[in-house]
Design goal:
The protein has two helices and no strands. By secondary structure, it is an all-alpha fold.
């Protein structure tokens, strides 16, 4: 597992930051499980998956431009 260091201002509750990070990780873990289950059910191969990822990236770029979001 990777480890990251986050600088938290003194006025921010450290336990709250930890709790939010744990929640984010749990959501991402479940999202990954759902994607893997869906791919298995749909019998999608690696090539199809790469094509879907390319399309997703293109759509996201268009939406970011439309919503005037930064490129972060």
């Amino acid at each position: 597992m990777k480890q990251i260091l986050i600088n938290v201002p003194e006025w921010v509750d450290e336990d709250l930051v930890k709790l939010q990070m744990e929640r984010i990780l749990a959501i991402e873990s479940r999202k990954r499980e759902l994607i893997e289950e869906t791919l298995k059910k749909l019998d999608i191969g690696e090539e199809d998956l790469q094509q879907l990822e390319k399309i997703r990236g293109e759509v996201w770029k268009k939406e970011k431009k439309k919503l005037k979001l930064s490129s972060s």
